[in-house]
């Protein structure tokens, strides 16, 4: 018999989870201070606990943007897991070993590796160089199963095509402060979206965490993404 869904209920809340062939919901830890990543996980149905890794990104070097992001994502995830282990127990509050995800995003543009801008002047100079051109945003992901120590790593690239904002538009955008806190000095889901004409690839990857890729990484750890959907 089909159950009538009232407007407040989503399909998920009426499914009896015990009837699903999924393992118990695992605790999911996001090893990132990024509010954008946390929001992406929430929108994907995953209620993550946040533990900021504290990794000093400035001391890490690499030959290209994708490699740098990969090294940093791994350092962040492993630093958080080590912290949990150091506490004597990788179990999170519900007594189940946690899944830990570290991410890092950098922009590859004209042969340069660009993270967050150093200053408003840096953000301005970057925009004047990027406008009318394209760049590649790399987000690396390192997902570790705290129960087994098994790690899965993936780096995803999305090409961004920029519009041609005027000097006045760039000045107004930098003055908002938004470009100062994000890799590449732009967002696609905030004010910066006005200056991005086209993307080639996964848009969540640009924001900071590729949700379709996370689903495939979880599957490699035998954790169906849908098993993490939190019921309200
Ligand atoms: N909302 C939004 N945020 C973006 C976008 N592009 C990049 N970001 C943010 C996501 C990350 O918070 C930040 C990239 O810097 P990182 O990968 O180093 O992460 P963050 O320093 O924020 O935190 P973490 O190092 O992981 O603790 O830029 C975008 O299009 N939209």
What distinguishing features does this structure have?
cytoplasm, hydrolase, 232 residues, seven-stranded mixed sheet, disordered N terminus, Nucleoside triphosphate pyrophosphatase, binds 2'-deoxyguanosine-5'-triphosphate, alpha/beta, nucleoside triphosphate diphosphatase activity, ITPase-like_fam
Write a short abstract of this structure.
By secondary structure, the protein is an alpha/beta fold. The chain has 7 helices and 7 strands; from the N terminus they run αβαβαββαββαβαα.
Structure, described:
It holds the Pfam family Maf. GO terms for molecular function: nucleoside triphosphate diphosphatase activity. Its EC number is 3.6.1.9. One of its GO terms (cellular component) is cytoplasm. Belongs to the Maf family. There is one protein chain. By secondary structure, the chain is α/β, with parallel strands linked by helices. It is 31% helix and 21% strand. It has 7 helices and 7 strands; from the N terminus they run αβαβαββαββαβαα. It has helices at 11-14, 35-43, 65-86, 120-130, 167-176, 203-207, 211-220; strands at residues 28-30, 49-50, 99-109, 112-114, 134-145, 151-162, 196-200. Strands 1, 2, 3, 4, 5, 6 and 7 form a 7-stranded mixed sheet that branches. Helix 4 (120-130) runs antiparallel to helix 5. The longest helix has 22 residues, at 65-86. The protein starts with 10 loop residues before the first helix and ends in a 12-residue tail after the last helix. 37% of the residues are buried. 2'-deoxyguanosine-5'-triphosphate binds next to strand 3 and helix 6.
């Amino acid at each position: 018999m089909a159950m009538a869904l009232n407007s407040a209920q989503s399909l998920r809340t009426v499914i009896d989870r015990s009837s699903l062939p999924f393992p118990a919901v695992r605790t999911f830890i996001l090893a990132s201070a990024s509010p954008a990543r946390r929001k992406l996980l929430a929108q994907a149905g995953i209620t993550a606990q946040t533990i900021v890794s504290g990794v000093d990104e400035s001391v890490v070097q690499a030959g290209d943007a994708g490699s740098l992001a990969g090294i940093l994502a791994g350092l962040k995830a492993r630093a958080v897991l080590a912290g949990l282990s150091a506490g004597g127990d990788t179990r999170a509050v519900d007594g189940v070993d946690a899944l830990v995800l570290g991410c890092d995003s950098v922009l590859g543009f004209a042969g340069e590796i660009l993270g967050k801008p150093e200053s408003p002047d840096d953000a301005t100079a970057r925009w004047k160089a990027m406008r009318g051109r394209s760049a590649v945003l790399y987000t690396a992901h390192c997902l570790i199963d705290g129960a087994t120590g098994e790690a899965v790593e993936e780096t995803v690239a999305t090409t961004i095509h920029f519009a041609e904002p005027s000097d006045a538009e760039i000045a107004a955008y930098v003055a908002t402060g938004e470009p100062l806190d994000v890799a590449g000095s732009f967002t696609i889901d905030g004010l910066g979206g006005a200056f991005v004409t086209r993307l080639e690839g996964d848009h969540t990857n640009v924001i900071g965490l590729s949700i379709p890729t996370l689903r495939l990484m979880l599957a490699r750890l035998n954790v169906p993404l849908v098993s993490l959907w939190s019921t309200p």
